[in-house]
Design goal:
The structure holds two protein chains of two kinds. Chain A contains no helices and eleven strands. By secondary structure, chain A is mostly beta strands. In chain A, a hairpin with a 2-residue loop joins strand 6 and strand 7. Chain A starts with a strand and ends with a strand. In chain B, strands 2, 4, 5, 6, 9, 10 and 11 form a seven-stranded mixed β-sheet that branches. Chain B has a four-stranded antiparallel β-sheet with strand order 1-3-8-7, with no helix packed on it. Classes of the chains: A mainly beta, B mainly beta.
């Protein structure tokens, strides 16, 4: 049973436009959410996070939105750049321990 | 360099070989993890070590044997693997705060 779901396997966006990556979760105990970015043959790198006490966190071109009632979060990248092309993993933790639960990832392609 | 170093970066081994993957972190984290990433699958958690003690083993076959001699080092010993074990093996460390720091991974090919 997947507790963190990224239902779209891929997304293609034109350079300069907005990329919106979605993530849903089922465990109501999750209270901290993260996005990781992964290039081929490399380990995932931390991108941005949000605590459940917030509904938005912004860092430069990256903004994460959290809708607790819908158990949904999204990552917005604007403007999208070709270098953003990578696999993006959504992850969540429940605070009782530091273990993260990951989604399957979504492959973002930004077309020049 | 992320603070978590994995060696080797690439490994090709036969099904009868014995090899080991190494992970090292000097971030002061007290938990270390082994993950497996196969194509088109989520990151699969294999083992969790907290303060050098294995706290989780997610039904991983015994041909994978982890070892954590101290809080900075984590090994994954490999023995009589199968071709379907070919994958990217990722080590991560995590502290009392949030999130992990991942290594660059070892791309393992079993022939």
């Amino acid at each position: 049973d997947q507790q963190v779901k990224q239902n779209s396997p891929s997304l293609s966006v034109q350079e300069g436009r907005i990329s919106i990556l979605n993530c849903d979760y089922t465990n109501s105990m999750f209270d901290y959410f993260l996005w990781y970015k992964k290039y081929p043959a490399e380990g995932p790198t931390f991108l941005i996070s949000i605590s459940s006490i917030k509904d938005k966190n912004e860092d430069g071109r990256f903004t994460v939105f959290l809708n607790k009632s819908a158990k949904h979060l999204s990552l917005h990248i604007v403007p999208s750049q070709p270098g953003d092309s990578a696999v993006y993993f959504c992850a969540a933790s429940d605070g009782a321990n530091s273990k993260l639960t990951f989604g399957k990832g979504i492959t973002l392609s930004v077309r020049p | 360099e992320t603070g978590v170093t994995q060696t080797p970066r690439h490994l090709v081994m036969g099904m009868t070989n014995k090899k080991s993957l190494k992970c090292e972190q000097h971030l002061g984290h007290n938990a270390m993890y082994w993950y497996k990433q196969s194509a088109k699958k989520p990151l699969e958690l294999m083992f969790v070590y907290s303060l050098e003690e294995r706290v989780e083993n997610n039904s991983v076959p015994s041909r994978f044997s982890p070892e954590c001699p101290n809080s900075s080092h984590l090994f994954l010993h490999l023995h009589t693997l199968q071709p379907e074990d070919s994958a990217l093996y990722l080590c991560a460390s995590g502290g009392r705060g949030r999130g992990y720091t991942f290594g660059s991974g070892t791309r393992l090919t079993v022939v």
